[in-house]
Write a structure and sequence with these properties.
By secondary structure, the protein is an alpha/beta fold. The chain has one domain (about 5-145): 3-Layer(aba) Sandwich (Rossmann fold), CATH 3.40.50. About 35% of the residues lie in helices and about 25% in strands. It has four helices and six strands, in the order βαββαβαββα. Strands 1, 2, 3, 4, 5 and 6 form a six-stranded parallel sheet that branches. Helix 2 (about 65-75) links the parallel strand 3 (about 50-55) and strand 4.
Length: about 150
């Protein structure tokens, strides 16, 4: 099993690029990783460390490629007490529900018993032309909290 399972949800690809960049940085730091873009629930180990990287779509919605995973957790309510996770959201502060998708995911994971590691990172794409930059700075601190 990988040390860290990265789960990304993206509409236009930005969150996917950020997740891939973070995977590279974590591998450079000696972690083994598994990358899952829009996985099914049964593809994700129900234990260990997850790093969820997700953009917000529309009016605070979860991207289409991650929606089935989110709904499967909501409906089946698995015991995630053996999961610890980090959360990175991408959004646009001009929308009312800035980073709404990652907040929904975080709330759901915690409700199922998962424990968040460190603070959630919310990246405003209007302030960060290259969202990988603040994500890289964040992951350097986050990995030390594991």
């Amino acid at each position: 099993m990988a040390d860290i399972t990265l789960i990304s949800g993206s509409t236009l690809g930005s969150a996917e690029y950020v997740a891939e960049h973070l995977e590279e940085k974590l591998q450079d730091a000696g972690f083994s990783t598994q990358m899952l873009h829009g996985p099914a629930l049964d593809e994700v180990p129900q234990e260990g460390i997850w790093l969820v990287v997700c953009s917000t779509h529309g009016a605070g919605e979860i991207p289409d490629n991650l929606q089935p995973w989110f709904e499967a957790i909501s409906e089946s309510q698995p015991d995630l007490s053996q999961v610890r996770f980090g959360a990175v959201g991408l959004g646009n502060h001009e929308y009312d529900l800035f980073c709404g998708a990652i907040r929904q995911i975080e709330t759901l994971l915690i409700a199922q018993g998962a424990q968040r590691i460190g603070d959630r990172l919310e990246i405003d794409v209007l302030e960060h032309e290259i969202p990988e930059d603040p994500a890289e700075a964040w992951v350097m601190t986050w990995k030390n909290a594991i």
